[in-house]
Specification:
homotrimer, 665 residues, alpha/beta, TIM Barrel, Rossmann fold, Immunoglobulin-like, 10-stranded mixed β-sheet, 8-stranded parallel β-barrel, 23 strands, 32% helix, hydrolase (chains A, B, C), glycosidase (chains A, B, C), zinc (chains A, B, C)
C-alpha cells in the first residue's frame, strides 16, 4: 500500500482544537483554507482530552475537528500524545516520572515528564496510540503521524532505567570482567564484583568514569529509539498508508537523531531562529546549519513541524518581535535548504497554560495583524511555486561529518575552555555558507562517495570502520579535512596508546608530538602566503611524516612548528588542522579548495545573504535570501528568471531587508 | 475599652533581655531612659526561654525585665515568638517545618522555620500566645503586640499545605471541572480527573501552569493571614487595651500586605537603608518608596519597628558603616513620611548567634560611640518635637497603585528581560520624589477620589471591578496614567481575547496593534516638543482610537508610530505609555501635570534632597532632608520657621551632609 | 628500630601497575631506573584489585610489581587505599558513603566517597591495611606509607556523624546547659532541651549558629585525625621500620593539617602550579606559600608526593601545557623551599578513568617527549647534588602565623566583601618573597622564640594562651605585626565585650573606636613619609593608647585618624594595621623592618624570580629561580660557586626563562 504524500511543497499550521471553544473552530479552519494552508498538526498534547480517565477514550471532539478539517480540504498529521502523560496516569503509575541524578523527581504539571523505559508509559502509551490509530486509520483527512514530541535526553535514573541499563550492559559486554576491562574501572577501585553493584551513574558528579558516562548516554539513546519503535510498530500495522515523522528541535541535541530517524519516513524540525538584531550576524548561519543537519538525518528532504510565527516566551522572557519580512524569509530559508512542508507554530497564541506567550500567527486578541499578513504572502508564494519545487532536492559537493557521540564524549570531558564541538562545526559551516558553497551535514558513518570535499571536525572517538572508510575516500580522490582532537580514543572512551591523530595518522601523514590547550589565550598561525590568523582552543605541535606543512605557529615556544598540513594520499588529499583558526582562515582554505576542485559556489554574498540550490526534474532553482535588517546587493553572474516575481534578473540584484528571490537556473 | 496610644511621635529600641547577663539589665535600661527612649520591643524570638520544654512556661525572667522597664518609664511591645519554634517543638512535631518544592526540609537552627499551615505550629503557637497574653494583659508597661516577625513567603510544599491548598481550591472553584476550565489545564494534558491528583506545584519548574502558580501564591498569602488571625483573635480577646502591629520588611515582598494589615491597628516596617556611597543615588529614593508603601498598607501613619543603627552583616558580608548623620537623617526620613514611633534595631550588638554583626547602637564592647551619640541627638530632637508632630499626617494629591498580584504574576511569567514591576514603580516614584511631589502608594483596589493624579504601572491582571473604578475615576475628572502590559490577563492568569489594553482600551482610547519586547536593546521616543528619550523593555505599537498621540517611536520599523497617548475621558484624562521611557521622560510628563493640575510641589531639589509635608491640627511641617554625603543647597520660596533649630529660614538654605531641617509652614 | 630514610634529596614517580598490562611493567621500571628515579608511590587507589570481594585478598600482582621495583633498585611508598572504597563495600555497607547537608548521598563511582566516621569504613579499612602491612612489612623495596590520599573536608551529615558529633559535644561541654551557654543558643530560640534534639547542622543554611558551625568543623577535623590514627596504629605496630606520611593538597584546605601531621614522620604535598602565562604574576608566589605552609606543618623538610608533569584536566578543561623549563624549575622550587623527595605525578597518562587527561611525564602514546626530557634533566641534577643537599634546611627569621580556625571562622561569617583570610596571607607572603626575605608559615600556637619578626593576620578568634604568648614574644624583643579583625571572638566564636583588638589591646597599645567595612570601595592611607597607598576591605578607626601612629587615613570622615600604629612593648614592638593596605605598603613596611633588624635578604629580585637558602653541615646553598617566561637578570653581591653548573658566578647573572641557579654561599 502506498504512503500518503509527504513531499508536497506546502504550508501548514499547528492547531489545538482542545484549547478553543468549539464555536471558534469553523471560523479558524475556514480562514486557514482561505489563507492557503494545506496541513494541520493536532493532538500531540491532548492525552487528557482523548482519555480523561484510565480507559475512558473520548475521540468524538477530535472527530468533529477532523471532519471540519476535511470539509475545508485540510490534511492532518496527528501527534502521539506520549510527551504529556495525564495526571491519572502519573498519579496512579508514578514509574512514568523520570528521576534525576540526585534522586529528585521530574514532577508532572509541565511536559516531557516521562521515562522512556517506564513500563506504565509503554503500556498506556501503546494503548492510546493503538486506539487512535484504529480510530483514524481510515479518516480521509489524516495523512501521517508524528511520534511523541521533541524527544530529548532526560538521563533518567529510576529503578527501571537501572535494570534496563544493567541488561543493556550485559548484552554489550557479556560479563562483568569484560565490562571492567573495557571501561578501565580499576582506576579509583571502581570495579564491579557483582551485577547488583552496577547502577546508572548516580549523583551527577563529573568525576564519574567517562566510559560509563558515554555508555549510559548510548543506553538512553537506545531507550528513545526503542520507545519510538513501540509506536511505529503500531502505526505501521494499523495505518499502513500513513507516513511517520518526528519533530527534532534546537541543535545540538545529544540524541542519536540518526537512529531515531532511521525508521521514520521523513524527519521534521522545529525552527525558531533568534529574532534579535544582536544575533543577526550569527542566527542566519546557525539556522542554516540546523536545516542542513535535519536534511542530513535521512539524507532527504524534510518537514518543518514548527516554524516561528511570533516572539517566543513564557517561562523565559519574550524575544524581539520578528522584523517585517523575518517570518517569510526564514520560512523560505527552510525550503531553500530542503524543507517540503512548513508547519507554522501556532495558529493563535494560547490564552492558558505555560505557553501563553509563545506567540502564534494570530495574537490572543484574535485580530490577524502584520505577522498574519506576512504568513498569507508566504502561503500564496508557496502555493504558486509548490508544483515546480516538488521533488527538487539539494545536491552538494561538500559534506561535514556530524557525530552525536563526539558531541557527548567531548561534553563528558571538556578538552579545554572555549572548545565546543558544535560551535566549531558552526564556524566551518558558516565559512562555507558565506562562501556560497552548499554542504550536507551527515552522520559520520555515512558513505561519502558523492562528495568532493569532506570535513570532519574532531573525530575524538574513532574506530577502524570509520578510519578505513576515510582512508578509502581519500585514496579514491576525495579531499578530507580533519582537525585536532581526532583519533584520541576508542569507542569505549579509552585513550589510544599511539601518537595522535591515532588511527588517522597514516592518512594525515603527520604526528602530534605534543599539544598546548590554549583555550581563550589567543595564538597566531602564519600560512604559506605569509598571512597571519588568530587561533584559539588548541595547538597541536606537528611533525609531518609524509605531509607538507601549509601553516606554522607564529608565537610561543613552538613558533615555526607546523600547525596545518596536507598529505597526498592515494588520489586524494588529507588536511590536518592542529589548531582552531579563526573563520577567515577557514574561508581562505575552503575558498582555495573551491577553486581547485571547481565546486559549485555562488560567490560574492554580502553579510547575511545566503544562496542555495534545489534541483530536480522540474528545474534548478537558486534561492537568494537576505536574512538581514539592511538591504543587500549581490551581482548575478548572468541572467536568470525570477520564478517568484516572473521577471528576468541580471547584474546587480538588490534585496530589501529580509527580501528573497528565487531564480530558475 | 480604648486602645493604648500608638500614635505618639517617639523613639524606641529593641532589647533582648535573654541575650544578656541579668547584671547588665538595669544599667542598660537606665541609659535608655537617660537617652530619651520611650518604647522597647521584646521577646519575639524568645520562645525557648518562655517555654523551655513542652508546657513548662517560664515568664519570671521576663517579668523582672518588664518591671525594670516600667520602673524607668519605658513602654513595651511584645513580639509573639512564632517565628522561632523551639527545638523541642520541631523535634517532637516535625510538621512545623516547611518543605521546599524539591522535597527538601527547612531545618531548624535558623529562624522562620515554620509552615503557616502546620497544625502543631498553630496549636502550640496559640498556646504560648494565650499564656503570654494572659500574663501580660495587665502589666502596666505593656502597650501592644507584634504578631510573629517579618512574615515572608515560604511556599511550603508539605502534606498539610497540600491538603489545605486542595480545600482552598475546592472552596474557590467548587468542582474540578470548573478549576480545569478556569486554569486551562487541558494545555499539555494537565487536567485533573480526581482531587487526589491535585497537589501544590512540586519540583519548582517555571514551566508549571501559570494559573496554578498564581493561585498557589494566593493560597499561601491567605495562609499567612489566617495564621495571623489565630494570634489576633487571642490578643483581642485577652488584651483588649493593647494595639496589634506587624513588622514588614524589605520590599518588594510577595506578601498580601494589605490583607495582613487589615486586622492590625497599625503597620510597621523594618528599615535598613543601604549605607554604601555607591548606592547614594538610589537608596534614598528606594527608601522613600518603602516608607510610602508602608504608609499605604493601612493608609495611615505607621511604626518603624527596626531602624538601622549600624552596619548589618553576619551570614552576609557587612555593609559600610553609616556616615556621620546617616542614622539620624534616615530616622527623620521615616517620620517625614509618616512614621510615628521609630524603634531602633538594636540596643547593643549580639555577642552570640547568627546576628552578631548586625550592629546595634552600641558595639560589642559596650562602649557607646559615635553612632550612639547620633541616636541620642535624634531622641532629643524627637522628644522636643513629638507633641507638635503627633497627629500630623501626609496629604498627597498623587497616588501610585501597587499590586502584589501583578508583582507575582509578572514574576511567574517574566515578560521581557530587564522588566521588573517593582523597578518600574521605583522609577516613577523616584521621578515624583525628585520633583518634590509627594505621593501615596496604595493597593490597586483602593478608592481614588482624593487624588488628582493616579499612576498605575502594568495592570497586567485585570477585572471589571478595577477597570470600572478607573473609568469612573477618570470620568469624574481624574488624571490616570497607565502603562504597557495592562489588561493582558484576567484574574486567573488567562490571556484575554481582545486587543490590549483589554478592559482599559475604552478609557485609554487606544489599541495595541502589536508589540516588540525590546528588553535591554534601547530604542528612542520623540515627544511632542521634539525631545528624544531612550526607552527600554517594551514597545507597544499604538493606534489611537479616541486618544491623541503625544510621543512617537523614533526608530526601528515602527518609527513614527505613536508610543504615548492621552485620551480625554469624561472630565478627566487617561495617559497610556506604550513603552518604558527613561526617568527624564517621566520627570517631564509629571512636571507638566504638576503645573497643569497645580499639584503641591517643592521644586528645585538638588541631588539626594527630599521634601515632604506632615500636617494636622498642630500645624503644617515641611521636612527637608539631605540624604547625601555632600552639602546641598535649596532655595526656599519664602520665609519659614525652623522648628528644629528655632530660627527663621529663607532664601538659600544649605544643608550639611545628611543634614535635615523641619520648617513650619 | 630505626626508620628507613626519608630525607634523601631525590626524585620519584607515581606508578599504577594495576592500570597497565603487565607486559609493560618491566620496560617502564627499567626506564625509571635509567632516568634516575629512586622512589615510586603505589596502590593508594587499588583496593578493588587488592581485595576484589569481601575478604578475598589478592596481593600477588602487587608482589610481582614490588619485586620488579626492587630488582631495579627502586624504593616504594605504599598508599593505604581507603580513599576509594570498592563497590562491594559501598553496596554492602552503605554507611561508608558520606551524606551532604541537604540529605543527598555522595555516591560511589568517583573517589573520596567515604565518611571518616563510618564504622564499616573503619572496620574494612583497618582490615585491608593490616593485611597490607603484614604482607609488605618485610619487603626490601618498601620504605614507607602514605595514609589515605589527600584528606579533605566532607562535612558528612550521616547518622554516624550525628551520633559522634553528639558524643563529641558531650565530651567538650559536659552538659547541654553548658553547651547552650557557650554557644549562645538562646538567640533565635535555638536552645537544646534534650540531647536528642542535637544534630549536625542540616540544610546547609548560612544562618546557622556560628558557634555550632565552628564546632562542627572541629568535630570533622578530629574525625580525620582519629580516622588516620587507626591507620597509623596498625602501621607503627606492624611496620616499625617504615615511615608514614600523608599528601596534603591545594591550600587553603579547611583541614587541621597540624593535627593530621603531628603523628606523621614527614608531611607531603601535591603541587600543581598553574601553567597559564596569565597567572605568571601570582602562581610562583602562591606556590611558594604552599611550600612554606607544608614545611610548617611539622616545621621540617617535607616530600612532594605529586609534582606537576604535564597539563592537568579531565572533569575540568585542560590547562596550558608547561612551558619549556617549567616542570624542572617548579620541581627545583620545591627543593629550594624544603622538599627532599619530589615524586612526579604520574609516570604515564592514564588511558582509562576520570583522570585520563591529568597528564603524566609520558603521554598516552608512550613516546617520551619534551616533558620527559626535562624530567630526565631534573633527575640528573638532583642525583648529582643530592648528597650535598641532604640534611640541609631553611633557617628563616620571619614567621607568618597560619590558623585553620581563623580560616574557617572567617568563612562562616564573611566579614566584608573582598576579605579572604588566605588571600591576605598570600599578599603578605608575596611581599616578603619579592623582597628576598625567607619566612616560615606555621601554626599560630607554635613557639616563636627563633623569629625576629612574626606576622599574624586577623587573629579573629583568640584566647589567652595565644595572646599571652604573643605578649611574651614581644616583651622579649620580638617584632609582632597584627592586623584588623583580631581579638574579635573567643574560641567558641562568641564576640568579646571589650574594645578591639580585645586581648591584644594591651600589647598593641591601641583601641579600635569603630570600623568601616569598605570591602571593594578603595580608600587611602598616608604613611609617615607622606606616601599614599590604597587600602581595601576594612578600616579600623584607631585611638593609640600607648602606641605611636605611623600611617593615617587620607579620606572619608576619618581622614587624619590613625590607620597603622606601632607600640613599644617590653624589648619589642607591636605593629597594628587597621586596614588592608596594598602590597607596596607591606613591601615598604617589611623592607624597613628588614633593614632595622638586619634580616637576611636577597634584595633586587626582578619579577618572578625567587631566592631561598638551604643550609646544613654540607654547606649553605642559595637557590635562584626564574619562574617566568622572560629571561631575568639579578646582581650577585659577591662571587659564588654554582654547584649546578660548576662555575663561579658574580655580578650580573642572567637566568633564561624558567632558568635556575644554585650557588654555594
Amino acid at each position: 500500500m502506498a504512503l500518503k504524500e509527504y513531499n508536497n511543497v506546502q504550508v501548514g499550521v499547528e492547531y489545538y482544537p482542545e484549547h478553543w471553544d468549539e464555536s471558534l473552530w469553523e471560523a479558524d479552519i475556514k480562514l486557514m483554507q482561505a489563507t492557503g494552508v494545506k496541513v494541520v498538526r493536532v493532538a500531540e498534547f491532548a492525552w487528557s482530552r482523548l482519555e480523561p480517565t484510565d480507559g475512558d477514550f473520548q475521540f468524538a471532539w477530535l472527530d468533529r475537528a477532523m471532519d471540519l478539517f476535511h470539509s475545508y480540504g485540510l490534511q492532518v498529521v496527528i501527534g502521539t500524545p506520549t510527551a504529556t502523560p495525564p495526571r491519572w496516569l502519573t498519579t496512579g503509575y508514578p514509574d512514568v516520572l523520570p528521576v534525576f541524578a540526585d534522586g529528585g523527581i521530574f514532577h508532572p504539571g509541565v511536559r516531557g515528564h516521562r521515562c522512556y523505559n517506564s513500563p506504565s508509559l509503554r503500556k498506556y502509551g501503546s494503548r492510546i496510540i493503538e486506539r487512535l490509530a484504529q480510530h483514524y486509520s481510515g479518516h480521509p483527512a489524516v495523512i501521517g503521524w508524528q511520534t511523541d514530541n521533541e524527544f530529548s535526553m532526560l538521563n533518567c535514573h529510576c529503578e527501571h532505567c537501572n535494570d534496563a541499563f544493567r541488561e543493556w550492559a550485559k548484552a554489550k559486554y557479556g560479563t562483568l570482567e569484560a565490562l571492567n576491562s573495557e571501561w578501565g574501572t580499576n582506576v579509583w577501585s571502581g570495579e564491579y564484583s557483582a551485577w547488583n553493584e552496577f547502577t546508572v551513574p548516580l549523583g551527577g558528579s563529573r568525576h564519574q568514569n567517562p566510559s560509563l558516562l558515554l555508555d549510559f548516554q548510548r543506553f538512553q539513546w537506545d531507550a528513545i529509539v526503542e520507545f519510538q519503535q513501540t509506536q511505529i510498530d503500531i502505526l505501521r500495522s494499523v495505518c499502513p498508508e500513513h507516513f511517520i515523522t518526528h519533530n527534532f528541535h534546537s541543535y545540538p541535541q545529544k540524541l542519536n537523531m540518526y537512529a531515531v530517524g532511521a525508521e521514520l519516513d521523513v524527519a521534521a524540525f522545529d525552527y525558531y531562529p533568534n529574532t534579535s538584531p544582536t544575533k543577526q550576524a550569527t542566527a542566519p548561519y546557525s539556522g542554516a546549519l540546523s536545516l542542513d543537519l535535519t536534511r542530513g538525518i535521512k539524507r532527504q528532504n524534510f518537514w518543518i513541524m514548527e516554524q516561528l510565527s511570533g516572539t517566543p516566551g513564557c517561562w523565559m522572557p519574550m524575544w524581539r518581535t520578528p522584523y517585517p519580512g523575518f517570518i517569510r524569509a526564514y520560512a523560505w530559508q527552510t525550503i531553500a535548504r530542503g524543507a517540503d512542508t512548513v508547519v507554522h507554530f501556532r495558529w493563535r497564541s494560547a490564552v492558558a497554560g505555560a505557553e501563553q506567550f509563545w506567540h502564534g500567527l494570530i495574537d490572543h486578541s484574535n485580530v490577524p495583524g502584520r505577522r498574519f499578513a506576512e504568513f498569507t504572502q508566504f502561503c500564496n508564494e508557496v502555493n504558486a511555486l509548490g508544483d515546480k519545487l516538488k521533488g527538487t532536492t539539494l545536491k552538494n559537493e561538500v559534506a561535514i561529518l556530524n557525530s552525536h557521540e563526539q558531541l557527548v564524549a567531548l561534553d563528558i570531558q571538556p578538552q579545554v575552555e572555549n572548545m565546543e564541538y558544535y560551535e566549531n562545526m558552526k564556524q566551518i559551516h558558516r565559512a562555507l555558507t558565506k562562501l556560497g558553497i552548499g554542504c550536507d551535514v551527515i552522520d559520520w558513518r555515512q558513505e561519502l562517495d558523492e562528495y568532493k570535499v569532506v570535513i570532519a571536525p574532531s573525530l575524538y572517538l574513532l574506530d577502524e570502520e570509520v578510519s578505513k572508510q576515510l582512508e578509502a575516500y581519500a585514496t579514491a580522490g576525495g579531499t578530507l579535512i580533519i582537525t585536532n582532537r581526532s583519533g584520541v580514543k576508542n569507542m569505549n572512551n579509552i585513550a589510544v596508546m599511539q601518537p595522535l591523530p591515532g588511527l588517522l595518522s597514516y592518512a594525515a601523514g603527520v604526528r602530534v608530538d605534543e599539544y598546548d590547550p590554549i583555550g581563550t589565550e589567543a595564538h597566531v598561525i602564519v600560512d604559506i602566503n605569509g598571512n597571519s590568523y588568530e587561533c584559539l582552543q588548541w595547538c597541536d605541535l606537528l611533525t609531518p611524516t609524509t605531509a607538507e606543512p601549509i601553516a606554522w605557529y607564529g608565537d610561543d615556544f613552538y613558533a615555526g612548528i607546523p600547525a596545518v598540513t596536507v598529505n597526498t594520499f592515494g588520489q586524494g588529499q588529507v588536511y590536518y588542522l592542529g589548531t582552531q583558526a579563526e573563520e577567515s582562515y577557514w574561508s581562505a582554505l575552503l575558498g582555495d579548495l573551491a577553486k581547485k576542485h571547481q565546486l559549485f559556489q555562488f560567490a560574492g554574498l554580502p553579510d547575511g545573504m545566503q544562496a542555495s540550490v534545489r534541483t530536480g526534474e522540474s528545474g534548478t532553482f537558486l534561492f537568494l535570501l537576505n536574512l538581514n535588517r539592511q538591504a543587500q546587493t549581490v551581482t548575478l553572474p548572468r541572467e536568470y528568471k525570477s520564478v517568484l516575481y516572473g521577471q528576468p534578473r541580471s547584474g546587480e540584484l538588490q534585496l530589501e531587508p529580509y527580501g528573497i528571490e528565487i531564480l530558475e537556473m
